[in-house]
Amino acid sequence: MVAAAAAVTVFGGWAFKLFWTVAAFACAYEWFLISAGGFTPLQYVAVLVSLLLVAEPPPYPLASAAVMLGLLLLTTFLGAPQKRIWAGAGVVYACGLLFGLVALRGSTDYGLIVVFWLFAIVWASDIAAYFTGRAIGGPKLMPRVSPKKTWSGFLGGTAGGALAGTLTLLAAGQGAGWQHMALAAALSVASAAGDLLESAFKRHFGVKDSGRFIPGHGGALDRLDGFIAAVICAVIIGYARNGDPARGLLAW
Fold this sequence. Notes:
There is one protein chain. By secondary structure, the protein is mainly alpha-helical. It has ten helices and two strands. A hairpin with a 3-residue loop joins strand 1 and strand 2. The radius of gyration is 18 Å and the shape is globular.
């Protein structure tokens, strides 16, 4: 999967959009399966159309936004009354992933670098957190949500993500200052928060894994929880600084 994600990122265009549309739909499917026992057929269609509008928006932004809002409301209110908030949240969650990646990769100057930069931050954060936590141990981070996570792992993961992000930019000839390192550390924290959020979501519904998409490793949500949070935070920060979100992240 790492090889496939890297390949479509290099290729860009329709292959990148198709790959992440499928991934986002898998996340939405698992979210609905956990929180509501699955989609209704009409919800399947509404979510898929929403994702396609995000991946390839038509040249009428206001009309597109109105259609997406209508589809979000439709998906939400087709759910059971006590679970409608979860239905709406699942659509926003999946669309946020796809929108962020398409917006970032679409940058002419920085699109390719910024996506690999995010990959490096999130993957290195996960790896460093695991090994630091196993080696040092110590106080638990949020034992009620994720009993195995420790403060040492969290701090090690943040440091690992910051270092990996900086090295990726240097390897790409981009140059890296303290702003890039601080931003990489912040996105590493966002990744850890996304992981904890998904753990809390599963614990709320009494589920161990979000799915069986990857044998022994759970589902798409289990693999992408931290990455989704990092992407959404990254695109918000990028747009806050520049109309081109990738430039907003990397050009200081």
